[in-house]
């Protein structure tokens, strides 16, 4: 059975975004895009190859999928992240997407919670969710998340998309590990408790 793992890059005040460029996500008039890029290289100080090795598939929301699909297939194959993303099965939770051109991608049928439950039963290893804030909130509310890996960067933005929202009930977490880069990014790994 697969384990659903949320992996997110956040500011201290909870703004989420990838490690990309200023144009990565300007939705809602967000102008502080690209804030994570200065911290990208230091992430390798606290991550290991085992994270990729344990990831057997990826799950995305539509918006994140479209951004990833426009970028990663065009990166050099000697980039370990590009090689892994391009070779690993990918799933998209979307009510509107009808075509997924990125090789190895399947669109989940409607009814995300049921589709993700079925996916967890059919795969081994970690199912990594990158970005995809709306999807993450839905998965947390449906009690489908097994682990949360947060990379918290030493920055306050004051505005932007937040990862966490309302939940039907409090969720208890167990801290599995803590690590820090020389730039002050802190990696926290939590498992979700019943």
From TrEMBL:
<protein>
    <submittedName>
        <fullName>Dihydrofolate reductase family protein</fullName>
    </submittedName>
</protein>
<dbReference type="InterPro" id="IPR024072">
    <property type="entry name" value="DHFR-like_dom_sf"/>
</dbReference>
<dbReference type="InterPro" id="IPR002734">
    <property type="entry name" value="RibDG_C"/>
</dbReference>
<feature type="domain" description="Bacterial bifunctional deaminase-reductase C-terminal">
    <location>
        <begin position="9"/>
        <end position="185"/>
    </location>
</feature>
<dbReference type="Pfam" id="PF01872">
    <property type="entry name" value="RibD_C"/>
</dbReference>
